[in-house]
Amino acid sequence: MTNPIYHIDSIASFENRINKLGKTWTNIYILVDENTKKHCYPLLLDANPFLEVANLLVLDAGEDYKTLEICDSLWSSLIDTGADRKSLIINLGGGVITDMGGFVASTFKRGIDFIHIPTTLLGQVDAAFGGKTGVNLEYSKNQVGTFAHPLFTFIDSQFLRTLPERELLSGLGEVVKYGLIADKSLFELLKDKENLIQNLDSIIATSIKIKEGYVLNDFKESGDRKKLNFGHSVGHAIESCYMGEVLHGEAISAGMICESYLSFTEKLISQEDLNQVIEMVFSFFSKIELEEKMMEPLINELKADKKNENGVMNFTLINGIGESSINHFLGEEKVKESLMFYLNL
Is this model's pTM higher than 0.85 or not? Predict the structure, then answer.
């Protein structure tokens, strides 16, 4: 595969980055949701007047709309407005927009060009990178999708100023994950809450480099890229069962506590390491009040996880702060125990 390209720069340099590609398109589309249309689209146009002629595609905001039905409406809009194989889609938004916009682009006419401009911290450190696209199916996360890279991903942290605090914090869940699986110094940096905003550009750049390293070496997730799934098995189950109530970063942070507990029970980490994970997560996120009656639906979601093999639940676990390992196959009772551990904290 080719090296995925990203740029961390002012949005005013976006046109210059486009021109350096040396490409022309018959049609340009900008995909937004109702929030990014209001808060981010004007910033993009003010800095790049050439995009005023682009076709605007507007979606309702939220994970509930990340469906094949919405994709079908987007494909129809592309056809109705004369899109062809030389069209370009610019995805301006958070993880839902980049996941779905990438999926729509990678499947329309068997694949057209697309560019990501992530506007959330979650998008800037994770969702807009790695070449995964996808939509939800029957309320289960990312059950249908493709592997496809954008032409490039463009990051300007000024977009983060448009976010509510809860949305900004959600992105830190993925940053904590990077520290736990690969970079103890990043984990330690996150303890400096007073200088978190000043360190944000450095945190974003470090997170991208960690993910890029895994993606370059294992694009289709057959080996070490699975380390990026830490916290996501339990996290995606929580997100699916509490759709609309719990944000992605909140869900995977709870997942990281559960999967750190599994790491502890598998004798991979110490009690001190487990306590550090719990302390870090709760320094950013409130506890999700899981209900005991939801244990069975959560386990059913975990059983449906696409990372499983031969019907056995497959986890990435940590071997210490900043180290991780893949392919830990665990039984239902152990996983239930980890959920009850979180519930009783």
Answer: yes
